[in-house]
Amino acid sequence: EDGCESHSSEFNAGCIETEHLGHTDHGGDSVITEIEILNHIHENADMGKVLAVCTSEKKGTQKEDVGTIEVIEDYGVKGDAHAGKWHRQVSLLSYEKIEEFRNRGAQVEFGAFGENFVVEGYDFKTLPIGSRFKCNDVILELTQIGKECHQGCAIYQTMGDCIMPREGVFCKVLHGGTVKNGDEFTLIEEA
Question: How confident is the model at residue 3 (pLDDT cuts 50, 70, 90)?
């Protein structure tokens, strides 16, 4: 007997989940981390793929794909000019939207729009605020969709358009870690 039978059905469900993961002690208390719970609950979630991780030391400049980045909890990408204690700690842009823009004649590299992550497999702007993503140990929460356009950016000057103001999204960092090109990127909770 594991001690779960004597608890309410709501608690019992929690016991079953943690017991299935092998983390319930025989007193009924679960010994499991939030990340383990999220991993277990969302093991069949939709997967995307990180194609680029980009950073820049100065605001107003294009970011550069650096291959691997460290993401700091409640701060953002280590060494990135946009990191800080605010709601736009990390920016995401869909690879498919960059490709659509390239197909219109734009010659842009990853990071050109100021995005930190280029991710294949999601149309970020269609997801609600509060949605959460996981990549390795990193957990991000969507806080803003789009931003005001700086219409003076080099891309806008050349193309008469820029996709970041309507396609880019911003997140705060709930849990930090390391992200590199090729890592899986998962929507773990749609708000």
Answer: very low
